[in-house]
Amino acid sequence: MLRLPRFRYVAPGSLDEAIRLRAEHPDTSMYVAGGTDLYPKMKRRQLQPELVIGLGRATSAAIANGQGLRLGAGATLTAISEHPTVRERYGALADAAGLVSTPQLRNMGTIGGNVCLDTRCNWYDQSLFWRTAEGYCMKTHGDVVCRVAPSSPRCLAVASADTVPALIALGAVVRLAGPGGEREVSLADCYREDGIRYLTLAPGEVVVEIALPPADGWHSTYLKLRDRGSFDFPIAGVAAAVRWDGRAVAEARVAITALGSRPLAVDAGALVGTRLDDDAIATVADAVHRAARPMDNTSGTISQRKRTARVFAERALRSLRARG
Amino acid sequence: MSEYSIVGRRLPKVNAWAHLTGAARYADDIDLPRMLHGRLLRSTRPHARIERLDVTRALAHPGVVAIVTGADMPEKMGIMPSTQDETALAVGKVRYVGEPVAAVAALDEDAAYEALALIDVEYEDLEPIFTIEAALEREDVKIHDEARRANVFKEVHLSFGDLDAGFAAADHVRDEWFFFEGTTHAPIESHAAVASYGADGKLTLWSSTQVPHYLHRELEKVLGLPRSRIRVIATPNGGAFGGKSDPFGHEFSAALLSMRTRRPVKITLDREEVFYAHRGRHPVKMRVKTGVKRDGEITAVELNSYLDGGAYASYGIATTYYTGALLTVTYRIPAYKFDGVRVYTNKPPCGPKRGHGTTQPRYAFECQLDKIAADLGLDPIAYRQRILQPPNSRTVNDLRITTMGLGECLGAVRTATGWDRKRGELPRGKGIGVAGSAYISGAGLPIYWNDMPHSGAEIRIDRGGGVTVMCGTSEIGQGSDNVLAAIAAETLGVYPEDVHVVSGDTSLAPVDLGSYSSRVTMMAGNATKSAATALREKLFAVASEKLGVPAERLAAAYRRIYDLGAPERYVGFVEAANLAEARYGTLVGAGSYKPPAGIGGSYKGAGVGPTPAYSYQAAVAEVSVDLETGQLTVERITTAHDCGRALNPVNVEGQVEGSAYMGYGEAVLEEQVFRGGLHKKPSLLDYKLPTSLDTPALQAVLVETVDSEGPYGAKEAGEGPLNPVIPAIANAVYDAIGVRFDETPITAEKILDALGKRDNRAAPKDRIGPDGLGDGRRDPGRALRRLGASTEARERKRAGTT
Questions:
Q1: B268 touches chain A (CB under 8 A)
Q2: What CATH number is given for B16-22+453-593 in this structure?
């Protein structure tokens, strides 16, 4: 099998210590939580940190009720998908966390790691041998073209985290800590449309906690397109959440992933005040279809993914009718 | 009550415990003192001349002990003696991305890996060829200089019966093209080999191989070491499916590195390398033309197949013939013409995968029969049952049929699935489809010409009643050790757990040609049975004397030899064995097996197709299609399989279900495809093997025809049951949405395209499939005609008529 390159691993006991270490080695260190994304990429020599800073002791894995729900960054995807409050009140997140990869990887993978998941591309997620034969790409070699679209000025690697659209639809706010202290930011603002600099986090910043607002009246769901019932990353993902006020929708959020380099909130305003009528749903599904910009760099095809995004938007929203 | 004590019983495999608990010792588990770790440098170019290959820097790397290159092993090798076009490591030229170029042995894996980057290779790129069409036409680019025309590896032309009269007599003719996409085996265990060259000048090679005997021969040829000084041990294979039945570069490299360093050397391929080793299912374009009478009776069939062979021969000659040979054994075909062409392309070599060469044309033909049934308004099952090739007959291409259970298989799946209730009655989006097929129980001829047995077995009985069976078969997870143990136990009257099987060891066991072509049960089974029978005669002789009963009245079971007339009168097995050893000396029995003469024709090319007995199978697939997303779900696959006799029904059902699983993957998900010369998905994340969540409900129905050729009546079970699954799924999709899928895999994209939903402007289609060679822009017949013309010219020249 492919072997890991040599590297140094430290597991600091505090967040301050982790951030300090990261700042001391700005170009040669990386954080790791569950390791399900980083270690395979190190085996394929996509990422080669000399120092790997384990966050297991520095961050909390607690899932705490309070004003809404607070997810420690170290909470595993299994813990989240099985948590009674998440299942009952934050359905989209339970769905999404439970659909990530395989049971084994969900046992290791964390929510903090999943929201920071590296973007993916089938020109990039290959071994060093394969990429040597290809001649590399923009994501690892700045002077090389993007293989997906050679004229593209930016990397087109794909946002592939299942939990992110669910969290955006649920209105998640993320608490970050870094050399400059702590700050809170809407999760939707943590991403940008760039396969290389896909996170807006400052250098050395780490996800500490994800806070979900109270879920009173909210119902949500997440639908994932993939080739198989397990293992696969999404090739289209749609999360939808609506808050019912009596028999009408009072608030609605829809978010998509795996259809571009960033996860995206899609305008769902047309649903507000309706009873999730077909027309209103069609308007939002059209918006999803327009927002979906898949490229030929994942499994499946562009037209299949774009079309399915629309269908999944319709199905996700229709499934929320019965719960009103 | 059964007349047998072991045969037919649902017993656990003798090696089940070791395999389930991980105790089985696979090649990569072997760890020898002073062992070095090897890795292969692989080509990064699809087609290039090696201008310079310099290992100086790599040799200087700390931990590196030795490096070998193609120049160290220039001898040509390959599984088929007549088409050896490969070397252990590339010599002068590389022909696909991933071809091994050099091998490093180092103190640990990391040092070996690091050293690869220090080997300096300069390539001069040559134009690559990636398609069947380019391979047929490009005279100016030669992947192999030896190819006489363009990049054609092999073409075969066979004709039987009066084709013109057949088509003239037809009331209805279907003539269409099909494409079967390439797929790979993806065994869970990657290939691994450990070589140890000892102080005695002898080499031992442990390898996850299906063909220890053929590997033995090739090692002698390439290494220049007499075979008498080489011992090959086939370790238990963690799955193989045909992908471990060629000699491979890593095996020779480990051996030579061990000879050079006088230390054991292990080379284990990583997952990506397994995709490059490949030898999987050929992509095949096919034209099938079938003429029928108004009632569906077939009057003539014409088949053209174009195989994309990849860069080397592998089993290519046999594969090419197999695309034509077995089409005739299922239904009556009075006239048949087959033209097959296999070409070289700059991709990993294709070879045998479960169903070897028969899977692709069977898919095409069963889809076409389904269309003919629809054209004529016939029920697809009843139609097939009416046109069956009869048992105990000969086909138009002179293949001998013995038992033939396809009719029963079709009846069994009809009943088991409630076909009559469902066919034509399901709502749009749901469908049910059927197909039939056949396979060989072992190839009638060995790979190299010889008059010796195809399989030999030796059995020894020890003084405690233990029975040791030695046979050169390779246990690849299919249960071959269990089959040998069961046959020996049944024949001698002991339990399988009394039997020790020593398989796959060229020094300890007589030659068996290997675990390929579904030959082990038939051939090694017969050899084992004959060895055991020889020993039983000795046991009966002494027991007869002791009991005062004639030997004909004795039987053996439950560790006793007893009087059939009075079963309470018996001699215990141990006592009988001790008495026999006292009288005859050490108790050793030998048996061997060779297929009978006269099972095939005598024309050129008649060597591929004959077998002692054909297995038959029918499958019904039930599917549902998401009309909005194009997602295809196969809900259930029911397969009935004529296995002659189920020596162990659990084992046979496992093979039938495993075949259905694999066929499902090929029909719906899997493709070994390339972008430029690069494999598009060389990982188990991207190459979409079905998971347990995707796998349909599987049901196996066993049909027993008890064939007198097989041991206790058994025929094969390992490959045939895959063949009907793929066309059954395609035919079920037609029933669901009215679209014919004349190419694999049946993806969501293609379904959306057919439904007119790929984009919002497209019109619906009633068929997805090729219309000829090329993409339709080119005249599809041109390459074929050119090839045909030159072939005719060559034949005329050979016959002296020009």
A1: yes
A2: 3.30.365.10
